[in-house]
């Protein structure tokens, strides 16, 4: 059984700190008070108030699985007026950016409530970055520009040199490979930190598996995905 000792100014705070570290709920643990805030000697009255508790995870309890909820598209279809306004601002930025960076070509398309931007060109691959960190940053900038003058919120998706589709295919292949490894070794695998988008791809790929489960642990931006045997 997994245990952790945590501290806080009160027992409630100490317990909550321990639950956060373990990634479980209050009903999933047994709590033992190691140092109670009510039992303090006269000589410790001026010392900082610290409560220590030991939390032990009950048997057959796992960190909660990060549930992937179905996407409910409630947003209105992007109007032609807002699309044209956003497109005008995006073209100004991309033309300026291309003239500085050099050798870029881009396409802007409207897909329901989404504006899709595709960039290609001789030097465009340099804009992807390690695991897409640069492309994600550029997409954030483009989203801010596209929303400057529109009446409704505009969502923007950026792809460069077909990176996103290639990355998705790679993650799907990785998911199946790791699934086979976990089944063979009967040991869980903890992946390196991933974005929510990348974790969702693996979650979705393995969600119908009867032999393994997936869940996420940790806090953003260091949240990790775990593939474990389905006991």
Description of the structure:
With 231 residues, this protein is α+β, with helices and mostly antiparallel strands. It contains five helices and nine strands. It has helices at 11-22, 80-101, 133-146, 163-185, 196-206, and strands at 3-8, 29-35, 51-57, 104-111, 114-121, 155-160, 189-190, 212-217, 224-229. It has a three-stranded antiparallel beta sheet, covered by helices on one side. Strands 4-5-6 form a three-stranded mixed beta sheet, covered by helices on one side. It has a three-stranded antiparallel beta sheet with strand order 7-9-8. A hairpin with a 2-residue loop joins strand 4 (104-111) and strand 5. Helix 4 (163-185) crosses helix 5. The longest helix has 23 residues, at 163-185. The model is unreliable at 39-47 (pLDDT under 50).
Low-confidence stretches: 39-47
Quick one: how many beta strands?
A: 9
Q: Mind telling me which CATH architecture of the largest domain this is? A: 2-Layer Sandwich
Derived from helix and strand composition plus strand pairing, the structural class reads: alpha+beta
Under CATH at level 1, the class of the largest domain stands as: Alpha Beta
What distance lies between the first and last C-alpha atoms, to the nearest angstrom? 16 Å
* Secondary-structure element order, N to C: EHEEHEEHEHEHEE
- For the CA atoms, what is the radius of gyration? 24 Å
Dominant shape: elongated
Helix percent band: 25-40%
At the third CATH level, what is the topology name of the largest domain? GMP Synthetase, Chain A, domain 3
Main pleated-sheet profile: 3 strands, antiparallel
Work out the helix count. 5
When the domains are counted, the total is 3
In what order do the strands lie side by side in the largest sheet? 1-3-2
Beta fraction of the residues?
Answer: 15-25%
The overall pLDDT average reads 84
């Amino acid at each position: 059984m997994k245990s952790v000792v945590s501290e806080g100014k009160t027992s409630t705070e100490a317990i909550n700190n321990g639950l956060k570290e373990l990634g479980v709920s209050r009903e999933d643990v047994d709590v033992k008070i190691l140092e109670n805030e009510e039992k303090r000697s006269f000589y410790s009255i001026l010392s900082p108030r610290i409560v220590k508790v030991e939390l032990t995870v009950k048997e057959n309890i796992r960190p909660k699985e990060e549930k992937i909820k179905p996407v409910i598209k409630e947003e209105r279809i992007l109007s032609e007026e807002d699309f044209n306004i956003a497109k005008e601002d995006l073209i100004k930025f991309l033309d300026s950016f291309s003239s500085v960076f050099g050798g870029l070509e881009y396409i802007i398309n409207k897909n329901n409530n989404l504006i899709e931007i595709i960039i290609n060109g001789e030097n465009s691959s340099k804009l992807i970055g390690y695991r897409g960190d640069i492309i994600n940053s550029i997409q954030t900038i483009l989203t801010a520009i596209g929303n400057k003058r529109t009446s409704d919120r505009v969502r923007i998706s950026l792809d460069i040199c077909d990176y996103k589709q290639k990355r998705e295919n790679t993650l799907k292949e990785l998911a199946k490979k790791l699934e086979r490894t976990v089944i063979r070794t009967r040991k869980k695998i903890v992946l390196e930190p991933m974005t929510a988008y990348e974790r969702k791809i693996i979650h979705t790929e393995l969600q119908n598996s009867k032999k393994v489960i997936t869940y996420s642990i940790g806090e953003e931006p260091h949240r990790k995905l775990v593939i474990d045997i389905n006991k």
